[in-house]
């Protein structure tokens, strides 16, 4: 799927500089950033859900420990 991304001028310049430093395309860096974001937020979602389950499971004990 193709899409357009509008970056601020300073973002474009920073991205261009980083791409030159790494010897890769700006496109490659953007794809890596999207992959990193998706992986990180998926993990955070799993941790958040596990915390909710454990809080419910141990609610009585947690209340007594207050």
Automatic annotation (TrEMBL):
Coiled coil: none
GO biological process, one term: regulation of DNA-templated transcription
Residues in Ribbon-helix-helix protein CopG domain copies: 4-40
Domain of life, per lineage: Bacteria
InterPro entries attached to this UniProt entry: CopG (IPR002145), Ribbon_hlx_hlx (IPR010985)
Protein name in UniProt: Ribbon-helix-helix protein CopG domain-containing protein
Organism for this UniProt entry: Streptomyces griseoaurantiacus M045
């Amino acid at each position: 799927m193709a899409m357009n991304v509008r970056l601020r001028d300073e973002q474009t310049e920073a991205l261009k500089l980083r791409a030159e430093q790494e010897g890769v395309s700006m496109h490659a860096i953007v794809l890596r950033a999207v992959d990193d974001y998706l992986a990180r937020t998926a993990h955070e979602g799993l941790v958040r859900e596990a915390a909710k389950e454990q809080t419910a499971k141990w609610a009585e004990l947690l209340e007594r420990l207050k």
